[in-house]
Amino acid sequence: MRASSLLALWLLPVPILAQLDPGVAVPPKARKEPVATTLHGDTRVDEYGWLRKKGTKEVNDYLNAENAYTKAVMKPTEALQKRLYDEIVGRIKETDLDVPVFDNGFYYYSRTVKGQSYPIYCRRKGAMTAKEQVLVDLNELGKGRKFIDLGTTAVSDDGNLLAYTIDTTGFREYQLYIKDLRTGRLLPDRVGKVSQVEWAADNKTLWYVTEDDAKRWNKVWRYRVGSRAKGTPVYEEKDRLYWFYIGRSRDKQYLFLTSSSAETSEVRTIPCASPAASPRLVVKRRDKHEYSVDHREGLFYIRTNDKGRNFRLVVAPASDPSERNWKQVIAHRDDQMLAGVDLFKRYMVVSERRGGFPVLLVTDLTTFSTKKIATPEKVYSIDLGANPSYDPKSVRYAYTSYQTPNSVYDYDPATGSSKLLKRQPVLGGFRPEDYVSELRYAVASDGTKVPISLVRHRNTRLSPTTPLLLTGYGAYGAPSFPYFSTSRLSLLNRGVVYATAHVRGGGEMGTRWHDDGKMMKKMNTFTDFIACADALVGEGATSRERLAIEGGSAGGLLIGAVLNLRPDLCGAAIAQVPFVDLLNTMLDDSLPLTTGEWLEWGNPNKPAEYATMRRYCPYTNVGAHEYPNLLIDTSLNDSQVMYFEPAKWTARLRDRKRGDRVLLLRTNMDAGHGGASGRYDAIKETAFDYAFLLTLWGITK
User: Fold this and answer.
1) Beta bridge partners of 35
2) Active-site residue among 261, 292, 394, 553?
3) Catalytic residue selected from 457, 502, 514, 673
4) How far is CA 99 from the centre of its chain?
5) Is the separation of the CB atoms in 520 and 609 below 8 Å?
6) Looking at 424, 458, 487, which one is the last position of a domain?
7) Strand 106-112 to strand 347-354: parallel, antiparallel, or no bridges (unpaired)?
8) Is 189 a catalytic residue?
9) Of the candidates 624, 695, 699, which has an alpha carbon nearest to the alpha carbon of residue 664?
10) Which residue, among 531, 459, 523, has the nearest Cα to 502 in the 3D structure?
11) For residue 439, what are the β-bridge partners?
12) Which one of 211, 217, 235, 496 is CB 3.0 to 4.6 Å from 491, fit for a cystine?
């Protein structure tokens, strides 16, 4: 549908509650069971802690009642939901094939089939004209299940064995399977709670990482395939602030074992040709020293923040990588971040972040000449793609923007030219030139310039009557780079402007951008977002009632904190799997993720950190405000943000809020943190959220 044909509809000043009537049904009212907690002289009362009792009849009844209420309120939008769903599916090439990746004699790829919810993972030997071999078909494995997810995969060097992990609940509890690719049969070997796997060079030994009861990846094991005995422990990370990771160098020479907290890391190595060897320490951990290691031609390349927060690159002999042998390759720079280094036999690809956007630099390690991979747009995202081969002729990368569908290129380091291999097909008459993106800035209260990226249809003009959806995240140093979305076109084509506030706490502007939005400086994340919203309204790009805000997980915390600080900020909000019960969660170290998160949000057992968290905790600070229309999405089996956080938040909001604006909680009873696992069900969830916003904006066609 062309946006211009809807111009008259979405420019009209429509009341925000034009179509959604919260009075069509009686909203659930959760019972109160007040429990007082006093810490550091401060007493908090939690009336809804009983909602943590997962699986009990009372909890299930409450969640089902909220779902029934949400369905009743949203019933008038069902035709719009169906229209949106059909639109989004209609833009997808449902039967499609990914760009094959060549590795060790095989072309590996995944493909989708119309009507099937999950990808099929395959390979062909030597050429794409060879017979297809199916490695994992999630459609077959998912038959009779409401959820299935493929975690990690690894093929042995000889190409004969496939190790892969499967989760069937959404709780991210993966079981390891090993498949003999010569016969197609599963071996009897089974291991539970596995997060990562890597093969040794002997094609018989497998390293895998398991998690503890709090879902912290903490122990690596060595396992000989076919033994059917429990693996041999190799290393256990006992400090609860640290998680454990393994990874194999691209040249297949070393296994790297990394213990990492939010601020400190420590790496050990094992030669892949000697799987029984004990791990060898590279550099002993010291507070706030982060480093990572890779290998090439007898040298360890070490990315380290020892000289500055934005990292530098050094090399050292693999035989003795101690700091006395470090030689600098790339110096630390205050204005750009060394985000990553990928090593090949003849080339090195450096990922940087400059001015809020990623940059890829390719260095010829023979001539030491460096070339930047060109990016045709000002608002974009670029990243290294799948490159398993150690000595390739070209380097694969991925490029996307608000206007450009996901695109896969091969870059020739010798000529500096890029060859487009595939651009995501978008059906239904899509034209990139019909959309316009731009970069704006808001000024935070402390004078910091905060970027805002926007995209709109070229026929959409910015005005106080323009509906605008502002999203944000701002945590863990994770960047929110622009990306293409086929689903988002359904908003843009109806005259909605989509924007992202690149607030502090994220990593777009380097490590210091993260530092200035975490721990004792976390309030900057929320005031940055408010400044972005105020700037857009102040510049006449939208108005308060035509502004909606959205965030998920830690971005859901952002939404919750912002709504308490400024309930007048917008007309509508969506919080997806929102991390809103901050204090109670961070005080319960039996919950998944809690202890490691102390270095991101703070440890509430410490008075000063408690006081900071107390100021913005969304659940704690719910007040008697007239909140905007609010849709809260969660999943029963979420292992990252437990379902009871948004459930408790909803119950407290419903009890305390003033006014008659709509408040909805929707719980997927069969999924985890990412929502529905099947692509068609995921589209239905997106259509539901879009219908909520569009109806409130009075856009019902």
Assistant:
1) 46
2) 553
3) 673
4) 23
5) yes
6) 424
7) unpaired
8) no
9) 695
10) 531
11) 453
12) 496
Does 513 reside within a domain? yes
**Does residue 5 surpass a pLDDT of 60?**
no
Token pair, residue 701, equals: 């066609």
In terms of residue numbers, what domain contains 350?
A: 335-424
Instruction: Name the token pair of 48.
Output: 């809804």
Angle at 6 between CA 633 and CA 378, to 5 degrees: 70
Residue 86 pLDDT: 97
Domain assignment present for 247: no
**Closest C-alpha to 482, from 444, 452, 442, 513:** 452
Place of tokens 């959205």: 550
Q: Please identify, among 398, 424, 450, the residue that sits at the C-terminal boundary of a domain.
A: 424
Amino acid identity of 563? Answer: L
**Residue pointed to by tokens 């070490």:** 302
Is residue 590, in this structure, part of any structural domain at all?
A: yes
| Number of folded domains that form the chain | 2
Distance, in Å, from the CA atom of 670 to the CA atom of 685, rounded to the nearest integer, reads 13
Domain match, 389 and 534 both: no
In a domain, 558, yes or no: yes
What is the mean pLDDT of the segment spanning 212-227?
92
CA distance 608 to 532: 28
Q: Which two tokens stand for residue 142?
A: 């998912």
Q: Which of 638, 639, 677, 689 is catalytic?
A: 638
CB 94 within 8 A of CB 114: yes
Catalytic: 195? Answer: no
Lookup result for tokens 């390349």: 301
Which CATH number fits the domain that encloses residue 572?
3.40.50.1820
- Distance in angstroms (rounded) separating the CA atoms of residues 413 and 387: 14
The dihedrals phi and psi of 698, each to the nearest 5 degrees, come to 80, 20
Regarding whether 670 and 624 lie in a shared domain, the answer is: yes
The one-letter amino acid code at 321 reads: P
The pLDDT tens digits for 416-445 are: 999 999 999 999 999 999 999 999 999 999
Assess whether 478 and 414 both reside in one domain.
Answer: no
C-alpha 201/C-alpha 518 separation (Å) is 42
607-616 helix and 554-565 helix, angle to the nearest 10 degrees: 70
Q: Are 339 and 482 members of one domain?
A: no
What torsion, rounded to 10 degrees, do the Cα atoms 473, 478, 482, 484 define? -90
Residues 515 and 563 reside in one and the same domain = yes
514 catalytically annotated: no
Q: What is the mean pLDDT of residues 569-576?
A: 98
The 10s digit of each residue's pLDDT in 83-111 is 999 999 999 999 999 999 999 999 999 99
Let me know the angle formed at the C-alpha of 63 by 17 and 665, rounded to the nearest 5 degrees.
25
| Cα–Cα distance, 274 to 293 (Å, whole number) | 19
| CB-based burial, 500-529: b 16+ in 10 Å, e otherwise | bbbbbbbbbbbbbbbbbbbbeebbbbbbbb
**Nearest-angstrom CA–CA distance, 220 and 212:** 11
Closest to 133 in 3D by CA, of 167, 159, 165? 159
d(Cα 77, Cα 18) in Å, to the nearest integer? 12
What is the share, in percent, of the chain residues with pLDDT greater than 90? 93
DSSP 555: H
Measured CA to CA, the distance from residue 126 to residue 74 in angstroms comes to 53
Task: For residue range 590-625, list pLDDT tens digits in order.
Answer: 887 788 899 999 999 999 999 999 999 999 999 999
Q: Could you tell me which of 177, 297, 190 has the C-alpha nearest to residue 249?
A: 297
DSSP 615-635: HH-TTTT--S--PPEEEEEEE
Q: ∠ CA(384), CA(388), CA(392), 5° rounding?
A: 85
Contact 280, 293 (CB under 8 A): no
Across 667-675, average pLDDT: 93
